[in-house]
Amino acid sequence: MKRWMIGVVLTVCSPLLWAFDTAELAQTLQKPQNVQGSFVQQRYLKSLSKPMTTQGRFVLQPRRGLLWQMQKPFENRLRVRSDGIMQWNGKNWAAASGSKSAQSQQIKLFLDLLGGNTAGLQQQFDLQLSGNERQWTLRLIPKTVVMKQVFTRIDISGDSVVRKIELNEKQGDRTVMTFNGINTNQALDAFAQAALQ
């Protein structure tokens, strides 16, 4: 009888049986048709005493792409889709400059981070998830040679959407992105619709 009671207690209290897992996290983050809001990005460089700060708005369609509209310190619009990073030149979208292979890896990583593609992330990182659906933190520890050369770790936190991403780089620099004023499943403006179609 005692053994049976201990078994029941262990089963009920087992964190493994009741834990929030990466598959559930992926489902949570992929529920919305779109996510819109504002962002503040702070880049901490070892060589500077103050972070470089940018602000703006974003629109994410988890299966389509990301529209990143920087407003401060200057205006810049980027579109991140599986076909590449494009920059708005005022009339149309033009390919952003940079190395194609490095760019494609960055694109995939960023879309996987924001869109909750944990299966994609697991190919390059060991995932350590804590918390529950209402408040979680996901730590990514690089496991591929390429990611180990760039990052020491990436921390992502949120609830039904991603609220914060912190990228810790191998050379000691750090980038922190916070997302605020978030709305899900709202109509997109004409520019965002055209950019992400």
The largest β sheet comes out as: 11 strands, antiparallel
Number of domains: 1
Please count the beta strands (DSSP E, at least 2 residues each). 11
Rg from alpha-carbon coordinates? 19 Å
| Count, helices | 7
CATH superfamily: Lipoprotein localisation LolA/LolB/LppX
**Order of helix and strand elements from N to C terminus:** HHHEEEEEEHHEEHEEEH
How much of the sequence lies in strands comes to: 35-45%
**Share in helix:** 25-40%
Kindly report how far apart the N and C termini lie: 63 Å
- The CATH class designation is Mainly Beta
CATH architecture: Clam
Structural class: alpha+beta
Low-confidence stretches: 1-18
What name is given to the CATH topology? Answer: outer membrane lipoprotein receptor (LolB), chain A
Strand order of the largest sheet: 6-5-4-3-2-1-11-10-9-8-7
| Approximate shape | globular
User: What is the averaged pLDDT score?
Assistant: 81
What does this structure look like?
There is one protein chain. By secondary structure, this protein is an alpha+beta fold. It has one domain (22-196): outer membrane lipoprotein receptor (LolB), chain A, CATH 2.50.20. The protein has helices spanning 2-13, 15-18, 22-30, 100-115, 118-122, 145-150, 190-196, and strands at 35-44, 52-61, 65-72, 76-81, 84-88, 93-95, 125-132, 135-142, 151-158, 162-169, 174-184. The longest helix has 16 residues, at 100-115. The protein is globular. The termini are far apart.
